[in-house]
Design brief:
Layout: H1 2-13, E1 21-26, E2 32-48, E3 51-58, E4 64-65, E5 80-85, E6 89-98, E7 101-112, E8 127-132, E9 137-139, E10 143-146, E11 150-154, E12 157-168, E13 179-181, H2 183-186, E14 221-227, E15 230-246, E16 252-258, E17 264-270, E18 274-281, E19 284-293, E20 298-309, E21 318-323, E22 328-332, E23 336-339, E24 343-348, E25 351-362, E26 373-375, H3 377-413
Parallel strand pairs: 10-13, 23-26
Antiparallel strand pairs: 1-2, 2-3, 2-12, 4-5, 5-6, 6-7, 7-8, 7-9, 10-12, 11-12, 14-15, 15-16, 15-25, 17-18, 18-19, 19-20, 20-21, 20-22, 23-25, 24-25
């Protein structure tokens, strides 16, 4: 199924484009007590001229270990790693130990809303603080390892960790050989929700969503975003959401929603290296975040945020999902990305964004016209299959013809002239 392909692709590419950064904390004698190698993505909700906006950014590789970092002092204080970056932003990992385990007891994030490079047109100028207890925990004398995404929701801030290897209370100054894996890495497969009913509702286990008939493919809409230099996002696509949720009766539900272009509003913003396309249909909003890799002259979809109101039967009517470690819809600047096949963007295990007949171009656009087309891998594979089948049939015909000619020659050789 195409959804399974999207899931595997997203998992394989998680954190690939944003390299992880390594940080160390040393005591007064120079002995290393904390090592953290990790990728961190932030999504911050803030106000801009009375409207809700989102800022999406990564912990930069040039973040610094701040002076507040410490190896701790026995029972008086615990180890802490404080990473500073940008104009007054910091992320703190406060460690503690209990019996044979250590953990990041509290995660603290300070962010400065007056930083215009991250928070465009913010109407607030103060430094805000959010904090949350975490489930990042490992056995003493082992390194904590988590390659898959771990989401931590802190009010108006969502923090996503990936490609994490860290250890506190080090004894020899390097990572331990043994490791404690996170729960996210232990789940090797995720069930793909069926969209075509093959059994009645009464036959469906209570742990699975009740099947529902697939809606028709969504209509293709045209959306664009205008920046300081003209159109910076131009997109044609059909958009469908596939959301799995828990009902009040503890069973699982499935909501398949097609965006109707004439009832969908688009907005967004762009700068030199980042572009946002916001699509709102009724009470559902999808934000696409594109970025530019200046060194390769390629743009791609790095993040997707989905927020919506679920049906009344849902246990929690407000739904939000995000993934800021993607690498989809990739093309060269000046060219457009095109895919006629259905594409499934895996946001989380409960949220799929399905794209149909998509053609999109970001950043360098000549007027309102698409540039040269770069076909997606799915379309190339779909074209390759008939070619292979045709070549195989041609080869078979050739083999039969050769066999026929050889057989005919042998039959003529059996008659001698007297």
């Amino acid at each position: 199924m195409a959804g399974a392909r999207g899931l595997l692709a997203a998992a394989a590419l998680l954190g690939f484009l944003q390299a992880s950064s390594s940080f160390e904390v040393k005591d007064s004698s120079g002995k290393v007590c904390i090592i953290a190698d990790l990728t961190v993505a932030f999504s911050v909700e803030y106000k801009s001229n009375g409207q809700k906006e989102f800022a999406h950014f990564f912990l930069p590789q040039n973040a610094t270990v701040e002076s507040q970092s410490s190896c701790g002092d026995g029972n008086k204080s615990h180890p802490i790693l404080v990473l500073g970056f940008g104009a007054g932003h910091s992320l703190s990992l406060n460690f503690s130990e209990h019996a044979d385990d250590y953990q990041v007891e509290e995660l603290v994030f300070h962010y400065n809303l007056s930083d215009a490079t991250l928070f465009h047109n913010s109407t607030a100028g103060e430094v805000k603080k959010v904090s949350h207890r975490t489930t990042i925990q490992a056995h003493m004398g082992t390194k904590y390892r988590c390659m898959n995404a771990k989401h931590i929701n802190m009010k108006s801030v969502n923090v996503t960790f990936s490609n994490v290897t860290l250890e506190a209370y080090l004894t020899n100054g390097t990572f331990s050989t043994n490791k404690t894996e996170c729960a996210e890495d232990m789940v090797s497969t995720t069930a793909i929700v069926p969209t075509t009913p093959k059994q009645t509702t009464s036959q469906v286990p209570t742990t699975s969503p009740a099947p529902t008939a697939s809606p028709p493919n969504p209509a293709v809409g045209k959306y664009n975003v205008t920046g300081p230099n003209g159109t910076c996002v131009l997109a044609y696509m059909g958009l469908q959401l596939n959301i799995t949720y828990q009902k009040k009766d503890q069973k699982m539900g499935l909501d398949l929603l097609n965006f109707i272009p004439q009832n969908t509003t688009s907005s967004g913003r762009c700068d030199n290296t980042s572009a946002f396309l916001n699509l709102t249909f009724e009470k559902t909003r999808v934000i696409f975040h594109f970025v530019l890799n200046a060194s390769t002259e390629k743009y791609f979809l790095q993040g997707v945020n989905v927020s919506m109101t679920l049906p009344s039967e849902a246990k929690d009517p407000k739904f939000e999902a995000w993934n800021y470690s993607m690498s989809e819809l990739r093309a060269t600047v000046g060219n457009s990305y095109k895919c006629s096949a259905e594409e499934n963007l895996q946001v989380t295990d409960k949220a799929l964004v399905n794209l149909f007949n998509v053609q999109i171009q970001v950043f360098k656009i000549d007027g309102d016209k698409f540039g040269a087309v770069e076909e997606c891998q799915l379309d190339e594979n779909n074209m390759l299959i008939p070619i292979i089948v045709g070549a195989a049939l041609a080869g078979l015909v050739l083999i039969v013809l050769i066999a026929y000619l050889i057989g005919r020659k042998r039959s003529h050789a059996g008659y001698q002239t007297i």
